[in-house]
Specification:
Elements (H helix, E strand, L loop, with lengths): L7 E5 L7 H11 L3 E5 L2 H8 L5 H20 L5 E2 L8 E4 L2 H7 L10 H12 L3 E5 L5 E2 L2 E2 L2 E2 L13 H8 L3 E5 L3 H8 L7 E3 L4
Parallel strand pairs: 1-2, 1-5, 2-4, 3-4, 5-9, 8-10
Antiparallel strand pairs: 6-7, 9-10
Helix pairs in contact: 1-7, 2-3, 5-6
Length: 200
Amino acid sequence: MTSRASPLVVKVGGSLFDRVAPLLAIFLEVGRPVLIVPGGGRFADLVRRLDVSDTAGHWMAIAGMEQFGWYIASHGIPAAARPVLSAEVSVLLPYCALREADPLPHSWSVTSDTIAAWVARELSLDLLLLKSVDGIHHRRRLLPRVSDPALTPEEVDPAFIPFVFEHGIRARVINGRHADRVRSALRDEAVTGTLIDPRF
């Protein structure tokens, strides 16, 4: 992540539903151009409980991301229907773009984590994943860095790390419930979390 002004894709996990307003305030305060990819959260959790095919579940969960995206947009944030660079903070409404491109397997191995990585790849940008965990753990230890593309941690979906390594995407996973960590990550400062950088 090169400079404060460089745009960034930020996935806001659905577990941070109650933190949307404070997170948006931090994004605006830092002033870095950010394209938010919404998680599925409670909307996707409902789909998981239904007896539907993988394909139906895939699109229903993405529709859940769209709903969370509209909730974020309701706080006065511009919404984009396609992955586009912006000079400000905006939120992606992913359903139509993903229906058109259909770039990923229809499986619960792919969630909003890998979808956010796909958006970052489309825009050639770095990715910040905000979750309710401190980062990626292995054997109960927080990993400051992931260097193994075969790692399958619980904190991200199974397709995420292989996708990031295959496409050379620089990603960081941090706890979005800590305002200071979010602020530092947006400023490219050292922060508690996990870095995944396949390019080095």
